[in-house]
Structure formats: structure tokens, C-alpha cells
Records
---
Amino acid sequence: MRDWPEKKLCTMADCTTLESLLEMGFDRNRAEKAVAHTGNQGIERAMDWLMEHENDPDIDEPYVPPAGNVLGASEEQSPSQPDTETSEFAVDEIEDTESKRPMTEEEKKEQIKRLEELMKVKQEERRERERQDEVDREKQRRKQGQELQQVRQKLQEDEMKKLADDRRREKMEDRMAKQRVKEKIARDREERARKFGGGSSGTSLSSPTSDSTPQSPPENQGPPPAKKDYDQCRIQVRLLDGSALTAVFKAQEPLAAVRVYVQMNSADSQDFTLLSPYPRRVYTDLDMEKPLSELGLVPSAVLVVTKK
């Protein structure tokens, strides 16, 4: 008999919260879940739970109470208290039960109105939180986009810097290679100048002796002298702009040496070929490897630069 008041009290409280939720238009299954999960702590807690879990995938699944979860069951299984305490507890519960009178229609409407206003406030707060979350996500997205843009810009700058360094290094290597070729040409020119000067001085020194020697009559001269074997040749090159370059080369140097000399001393960087005007002959890539003496350019010759 002592268990009945507590069961009756809990049932009336459950019905009050559940009925209020149903009057506000909530689904019965959702309302029952809200009342059960909030431990019947009031309509506001149940509404908060419904708004927080309305997007759950299992919100509309039938609610099944846990096994053995019967109101008042724990009290039935607990050991009996002394008769005095039991009687006092029963009296208090009966008094509380009597104070829980049913709500009138006006009170129900007023409560529903108050709960609807509360629900609107809760929904507005939720929408405001969602808007703020959206703003925060947009800020985070823009921040990540700016960081990504900065990373891409830095990578591009590093790539451009690397390309500039490579070009600078290539230009330096080209300058050094041209400088080495110029130095080699200058050394060869000095060497040819020394040889040519030595031959002139020897000829000038020996000329007085030859002058002092009495000339023999023409009829007493021997056979004509053999053709002189030249070891140098003087090459004049006419450029595309009308100017000319003159240099002395060894007779055994290839025609490619003349080509390199023209490339180093000509302002025009276009590809060209060499030809001999009289008799006309255009020199090919194979001719570039042949000695000047073999090509008939000794002791002197005139070459003309033409575009390929």
C-alpha cells in the first residue's frame, strides 16, 4: 500500500510534461524520448533535448524503455523501513498527491503559450548559434585560403628565384667560355706574330749579305726554286654589315678556327656560313674540319660571311 502514492505522483508528472509537449505539436514518440532521457526534469529540459537531437538519425525510431525500468520498482526491492518512518512517508506523499490538482483549460493554454514563447526563444538562440558557427567557419575557410595562397606565392617566388639563378649561372659560364676562347685566340695571335716577326728580322738581317753577293748572270742560274711551303696564312673575312676582319692563322689549323674567330669578333649572333668568292665555293660542315692548306687558302685568302 505504501508504494501506490509514489507511483501515482510520478505518473501525473510524466503525463503533465508529455501532454504539454503533445499540445505544442511534438510527435508522441519524440516527446516520450525527451521525457525519458531528461529524467522528467521539466518541460524546458525536454524541449532543449528535442531541439538538440531533432537531427539525430534515430530520433523517429520507436522508443523502447530499458528492461526493468519500472517506476517504483527499486523501492519495492528495497528492505522494509521501520513502521513509523513508512507511515510518515506515506502521509507526506498523500498530501503531495492531493496538492497536484488537474490543470484547467485556461491554465493549459497559458502554459502552452508560455512554452511556445520559450521554444521560440530557444529556436532563435539556436539559429543565432548556427549563424555564429557559420561565420566562424567562413572566417576559418578564408584564413586557410589566405595561408594556402601565401604558400603558393612563396613556392612561385622560390621557383622564379631558382630560374633566375640558373640563367645567371649559364650566362656566367658562357662568358667564361668566350673569355677562354678569346684568350686562346690572343695567345695564338701573339705566337703567330712572334713567328712572323722572327722571320722578317731574319730576312732583313740576311738581306745585306745577299746584296753584297755579286749577282750571277741569268744564263748561269740553275733550275727554278721549288714552291715554298707556307706554314701561315692571312685570312680576310667580309662580314654581313660590310666590315672586314683580318687575322693570321696557321696553315694546318682547321677552317673552324676562322669561324670561331668571326663569332667572337662579330656583333651579329646569327648563324652563318663561309664561302670563297673566286673561285666561288661554299664551305660545308665537313670542310670546317679540314686544314686551311688543304682548302687552298694558303698563303692568303678572302672569305665572305653569308646567312644560312
---
Amino acid sequence: MAVNFHCATLFTSLLLLSIFEPTVGTTRKLSALVEQQPLVLRYHNGALLKGNVTVNFIWYGKFSPIQRSILVDFIQSLNYRRAPQPSAASWWGTTEKYKGGSSNLAVGRQILHEEYTLGKNLKHVHLVALAHKINAVNSINVVLTAADVAVDGFCMSRCGTHGATPVKGSNGKSTYIWVGNSVSQCPGQCAWPFHQPIYGPQTPPLVSPNGDVGVDGMVINLATLLAGTVTNPFSDGYFQGPAAAPLEAVSACTGVFGTGSYPGYPGQVLVDKTTGASYNAHGVNGRKYLLPAMWDPQTSACKTLV
């Protein structure tokens, strides 16, 4: 079975690259060295995931009802335009600037696998098998693994993945996303900025907006992969670099959540006066989320909500 997938890159890897990348062309003028080059995600003429898209959830392992509601509410927030500004819907609206118009997400089926039927050490083939529990075009099957589930490459090289597989009896492909709960395995890598990073500047962690470091970290990674899925679902959409390891709509802007961000500092975000939690987006049911910057094709720059 042909499978293509992309990763939500570890924050710490990019942090190290941004700090220690060697300077080249030392004979050039200093002004040339500090000039920022425009960030361009080239369109590779492939199909994007546009129109009405169903998001199905496959929960592997034990998640509390509250944890599930945080993530389901996040999806519902992306098309909820009555939320106060800045909102998750306005963040998602940037995807409309990519070719093909809007991607209208709606929550579909939810499947609970609380008995760990595949064990607690999963390989990529297991993730694909779980995603195939629901097999349909114009849908995104989101596989979420609990905090006590290990996945090949998790914490070492990735916080999640997205990809596509053929749909039986159809010429189309089904898209999927996997995100793991990192709270007990690598919160400094996959739940930053709600936990101090292992490497780099040790700025104080932010208070998570929904009171769950692991799940609020999952929201950030799910947001990253959702944007990548609709704008580069089949490896021939919008991206920079090699197709096998692309920088996509949000992964090209890793570590940026507000204005004034720099490596190790997420930028200026909003703070709830009652809880002290940091956020930059309002959603349904009074939810608040911290969402990463997204590349805006109209300005060729990473766009933040605040």
C-alpha cells in the first residue's frame, strides 16, 4: 500500500537550528547577512482539500471526556464565526487564501479504542490501520494516541504526522493525521510552550489555556497538521523544500505564536486575568486556544492572531 506522510517537527530541533546555523558568505556586507529572505511556499499544482471536509476521530488509549471535548471543540471552533476576536475561525480563515477557497471542517464519527488492542508500542503501519477504520474521500481521519502509548519516532523526530492512502473501490485518497499526547514522554519537545524546552533558552513555560499541558500541546500539533493536510494533502500542494520532508503552512512558522517571537520565546499572547492561562484564540463553548502562526500566501509571511 502506497503511503505518503509528513511530520509535525520537534520544536527543539528547529530551535537548535535557528541558534546554531553557521553564517555563510562572511565577505558580504553586514546588512546582507541580516536581511530576511521572503518565505515562499511554492504551489506544486496538486489537488488541495477544499469544500466540506469531515473530521473523524479515532481515540487510541484512555482519554477523559474532558480531554476529548477540548479537541472536538477545537475542530468545531474553526468554523464558528460568532466567537470573540481573535478567534480560531479567523486563524483558519488564512487557509482560504490558498488556491481553491475554503475548507469547511465538520466533526464526523468518533471511535474509541480504550482496550489498547494493538498494544502500547505502535509502528507507523498501526497508525495507518487505525486511520483506515473510517475510509472515505474528502475526510480527515485523526488518530490520537494517549499519554501511555509509544509510537515509532515520537519524541525523537516528530510530534505527529499527516498523510494519505488509497481508498478501496475509488480513485481517490483518504487523508489522515496522527498526534500523540506527550505529557509523560516529551512535553518539552511536543508541548512547548506549556513546558520548558530541553534545549535552548529556558524561559518560563506558559499556563495552558484548558488546564491540560498534554492536550493543549496536542491542539498545537493538530492545528499544524490540519493546515498542512488541507494545503498539501497529497505531497503536491503548497510546501517548501523536499516533498518527503516539506515545510508546510504552519510548520514553516514553527515556534511563532505572537508578535515579537524569537527562538525560545513564543511572542506576545493574551493572558486570562482569572487563570493566568495564555491564549490567542477564542472558540466554541467559551474555549480558549493557543494557535501557531500560519504562512499567508498573500503576504509571503507568517501571520499571527495577536
---
Amino acid sequence: MPEIMGWMTQILKDNPDVVSLVDYGKTYENRTISLLKIGTKTGGKKKAIWMDCGIHAREWISPAFCQYFVREILQTNKTDPKMQEMLKNMDFYVTPVLNIDGYIYSWKDNTTRLWRKSRSPGPEGCDCYGTDLNRNYYANWGLIGVSFNCCSEIYPGSKPMSEPETKAVTDFIGNRSDDFLCFLTIHSYSQLLLVPYGHPNVAAPNYDELMEVGLAAAEAIKKVHRKEYIVGTSPDVLYANSGSSRDWARLQGIPFSYTFELRDNGTYGFKLPEDQIQPACEEAYSGALHIITHVHDKSFSISSSMATATATMWTTMLALAVTISTLL
């Protein structure tokens, strides 16, 4: 984790014109939760993209992807007009590791490598530690796909938002949810793109569009290294669940919300070999970029069209006023 924090500081130092480092919460063990805010500093209010990695401690490919993503968009921004346009119109908020306590614990030794949850103590009378942070959000909390056995890997906590890590995200986004166009949370493994919702009896109002964009993103992923990603709701392609950050984001009104489940399909599982890290990040970047580009173009092409129409209307009205004045 010190290496990741050092990397974040270096990214800020190397790119002060487009990068800010924002501390926005504390973990149970009092570690600072930080993100990189990336975007052209216009001085005005901007739309935003959210990405978090490392919500589950053992999913080590996830923080690696967030680092890769940041590096790529910053490098691309130097020469690519499209990326420059997107960073001018939107800010990217990227949290490389959300579950810092659990992530550090998973590096302790071989006995802790597959730790999933946070590191907060269980309720009174429970000797086990940790809450599944991706079951702790206020989104159909506790209804399905959880266990209230505090030793379970899918223990959702004593109540919604009981964990400081979860509350940090909801406080940060909740105060400005109208600004966010897209919410991406990065996990492993299974090679999936999951859309809301985790409850089988609830459908997102824009489900068809989420699927259309997701399927196109899966095609973009496949073009990189021929890996197949399945797209769908969690109940349809994985398992039903509740209390996820993806579902919470959609319920907040953020229109595009996706969970990425990166490589692989189970051969190595959470212990992805080192030689697969780079290709896994390359293909996932292609999929994420497709979604982000779609979100950007949808929002700003509409804004641009409306601005053009308004300008045309005012020009016409002005010409008409001049004509009437001349006739009089």
C-alpha cells in the first residue's frame, strides 16, 4: 500500500495541471482513503465519472487496473483530441484501493491472501472480523445474497452504511450525485460486465440502454485479446445480491452504473499470474473507455445540440426584430 500511495503522489507531481489528490474518508483502522481527481482545471462545475478499485481485499488485479487506467488516460491526453475533450468536460474520480485495511491484511502472509472483507470487528458476541463492503450499501440492503452470520464472507454489516469505507463513498458522491454520469466499480474474477440490479425482481429503468452499451463494451474488450465477457444483471449471469455499490449508484440517479469482473474464469481465480496483469488491464481499459466515451458523447452532444438550437433561435429572433424595425 505504501507503493500505491507513493505512486499517487508521483502522479500528482508529474501532472499538476490535470490531477488533484483528494482525501475523503478514513478506514476502520484509521487509514486515509484517497482518490485521484483527473480533469482539466476549468474553474467551473463539471460532470464526473467515478471509478473505484479494491473494494474486496483479495482481488489484487483490481487496484492494478485503476493504476493502469490513470496512466493511460493521462498519457493519451497528451496527444489525443478526444481524450482532451473528455477531460475538459468531465472530471474522473479514481480510488485505487477502497478497502485499504483488508488489502493490507491480504498481503500479510499466505494464510490471509484470500481475505475479502473489511477489518472492522463483528457485532457483540462475534469473534470474527470484517464486513463485505459490497453488501453494505443502502440498496435493497440485506434482502438477498447475504448472510447474517458475522463470520460469513458475505456478511452485510449490522446495518446499511455501517462501515466507514462505505460511508466515505456515499458521503462524497451523495452530495453531488447529479454531477456523476457514470459509476464503475472494478472487481475480479469471472469476466463479466454487470448492470443493475442485483435483486431479481427489480429492473433499472434504462436496462435496455445499459445492456446495449455493455454489450458494445464487451465487444471492445474482445478485440484486444479475444477474451469473452458476459453482460447482464447479477441474478442473470452470476448470483442475486443486495447492498452493492453499483445498485446504490443507480438508485442515486447515476444513469450508467457497471461492475467489471476482470480475469479470469476460474483457472487461477484471485491469484492471477503476473504475466496476465498487463493484458487483463489492456482489455478492461478498452471496455471502460467505450462506456465512458458513450456517456460523454450522449451528454455533451445533446448539450451541444441544444446550445446550437438556442443560438439559432436567438439569431432568427434578432433578424426578425431587425426586419420589423426596418419595416416600421
